[in-house]
Amino acid sequence: MEIKLFHSNDIHSYLSNYDKISRYIKDQRSEYKALLYVDIGDHVDRSHPYTEATLGKGNIDILNASTVDVVTIGNNEGITLNFDDFNTLYDHAEFEVTCCNLFDEKNQLPNNIKKSVIKEIEGIRLGFIGATAEFTPFYKSLGWIVTEPIEAIKDEVEAIKSQVDVIVILSHLGKFADRRIAEEINGIDIILGAHTHHYFETGEYVNGVLIGAAGRYGNYLGEMTLTFEGNQLCNKTAKLIDTDALRNMSDDYYERGKKLLSEEVTKGSFELPRRLFSASYSTAFLAHALKEYLNADCALINSGLIVKGYSGEHFTNYHLHAMLPHPINPVKIKLSGRELKEVINMSFQHEHKHDVIKGFGFRGDVFGMYVLDNIGYIKSSQSYFVDNKLIDNHKTYILATLDMYTFGRFFPQFVHNEKEYIMPEFLRDVMASALIESK
User: Fold this and answer.
1) How does pLDDT run across 95-127, given as a tens digit for each residue?
2) Which of 37, 174, 220, 424 lies at a CB distance of 3.0 to 4.6 Å from 196, suitable for a disulfide?
3) What confidence score (pLDDT) does residue 160 get?
4) 369/282 same-domain check
């Protein structure tokens, strides 16, 4: 007997592709009775206006329509929504949700989420265990506790292995963690991966475990064929389906989102241009707003954050979202004067100004130039200033900046410095507050 196991991951609100996948799954269900479909997280991405307007609940409606059986959560579900919005995200889900390493401060699982899910199909019992990436400081700021995922998976495998014929891990942890899980935990048959946007055309075998992954944005749909003799899994194969080859579906999610975001942010006329490689009012305004919002000494952002400029009246939440679509949170970082000078010098190099950036929450295209607020510099004397006062090497300063800079790529020193993530506010919330106050 064969079971078809389809899997998607990291859709990131590419809803047109997801409509194609949904239609294909429904067609396959008419052909195969023994079929399961799972999603491995990061389906929600608030860079899409429909997802933003519905705070992810519209995405759950789409998942319901796709007849998905089991999902796990990605970091975009877990850390881009506030506590209550995430805790109610799956209230109307017609599928099951598993994540074994996320709890509230009372050590309870989020609403509608289980450590594992068991599905029986044609007499075969499949156990699904989900786990999500350990973004500890972000979850902590939102009131959640995320635990070390590999130990949590190991414990849950032990808990269910006597009840099932096959164990499938839904891993929103990345390909290197998946390989480690396959090496270190006995009893696992399949790992379906996500998070690092990788894909395996025919799967990858590690220690007898078949690992599958389907890239990102719904460009691929994964398909595994599991062959059984009785209740014993005797063969497993994997392949990818290129969704470009699937039938196109028309959708109106973007326009629906635009309509839902049609309320004006505030009355008045605005000139908020986009300029990547020269000074602009927009970036100067945003940098200053960030400093004021965080009550910091100074601020640092990049010009590419302004994805689309605006000129005119009736500046709506849709225009704000189009300008700043990023799920990026503000952060306050403590730096010594000496460290702050190092950061200023690095920013003057504009090392990434032409880089096309993917990930880190950035949803624009080109990184652009660094923009500073309340920081001065006199090149001839190598003098650095905050609030028109010379920077003291031994004094502590508070820098208002972006969480995307804290992962090590842009400013390595930010990884270890003391910092406070401001959540669940995004940059567009900071911009909106400042625009309202300016009128």
Assistant:
1) 999 999 999 999 999 999 999 999 999 999 999
2) 174
3) 97
4) yes
Q: Give the pTM.
A: 0.92
Closest CA to 183 of 201, 169, 172: 169
Q: Angle at CA 185, nearest 5°, toward 184 and 189?
A: 120
| Residue-wise burial string across 22-57, b where 16 or more C-beta atoms lie within 10 A, e elsewhere | bbbbeebeeeeeebbbbbbbbbbbbbbbbbbbbbbb
Strands 166-172 and 190-193, sheet pairing: parallel
| Cα-Cα-Cα-Cα dihedral sign, residues 161, 166, 171, 175 | positive
CATH of the domain at 277: 3.90.780.10
The count of other CB atoms within 10 Å of the CB of residue 415 is: 12
Question: Can you tell me the distance from the alpha carbon of 242 to that of 285, in angstroms, rounded to the nearest whole number?
Answer: 43
User: Two tokens at 300?
Assistant: 């640092």
Element (H, E) at 20: helix 15-31
How far apart are the C-alpha atoms of 391 and 296, rounded to whole Å? 15
- Domain shared by 89 and 132, yes or no: yes
What's the angle, vertex CA 153, arms to CA 152 and CA 157, rounded to 5? Answer: 120
Same domain, 400 and 368: yes
Domain that holds residue 383: 263-438
Number of Cβ within a 10 Å radius of residue 126: 24
